[in-house]
Amino acid sequence: MRALVSLALCATVALTIAACGGGGGDEGKIVEVIETATTTTDPSGCTELQTRRFNEQNYQQRGGAAIKACEEQAEAGENQAEGAKVSNVSINDERATAEVEFEGGALDSQTIEVALVQDEGAWKLDHVEGFAQYNGKALGQAFRKRFDKNPEGLSTKQSTCIVEKVAGSSRQEAEALFFSGSSEPIIKLAESCA
Question: Residue 104: which region, alpha, beta or left (left: phi > 0; alpha: psi -120 to 50)?
Fold first, then answer.
């Protein structure tokens, strides 16, 4: 069960932050923050590029524990994306949204919508809104690759069951698994494959 919780964290952690590039102004800064978040292994991104709300949602813990989990995951460098394509940036004063299509990593071939906020003049990831484009089969394949590398104490039967359930999840089910801020849906999925 812990292994699946860890995998779900890895999937959402594919958003951990650092620095790449993009045009000028706020839109360019937003693109840079997102591109950096998807590829960095620098633990400072957990506080410099992400809000507490973002960390709590994606690490399914509260306060300092969420930051610590983020930093540990960043240092481990597992499941980081190779790159990200940012589109549909929308800015409304000190808030923004954008779509992020992942290349490689735990969210390979997925596109999610993220919300950002300005914090002391700097843009930070604040919340994952959900999947903008969802590909269950590709998400299942990302889990399969992860289990092939590190079975995390799961039997072949358990890992196959989990991969099949993830791949067969509807968009709404996948959002509950990965973006609810709770480990409960993940634990239930793991228990159903025990």
Answer: left
Q: Are 128 and 12 in contact (CB under 8 A)?
A: yes
What pTM was computed for the model? 0.80
Helix (H) or strand (E) holding 32: helix 25-39
Tell me if residue 35 falls in helix, strand or coil: helix
Residue ranges per structural domain of the chain: 1-194
Query: Which pLDDT tens digit goes with each residue over 132-141?
Result: 999 999 988 8
Helix (H), strand (E) at residue 171 = helix 171-179
Position 155, amino acid: S
Rounded to whole angstroms, the Cα distance separating 179 from 130 reads 7
Interatomic CA distance for residues 89 and 182, integer angstroms = 27
- Within 10 angstroms of residue 64's Cβ, the number of other Cβ atoms is 10
**Amino acid identity at 168:** G
Q: Please name the residue that has the structure tokens 């484009």.
A: 133
- Burial class of residue 109, CB neighbours in 10 A (0-12, 13-18, 19+): middle
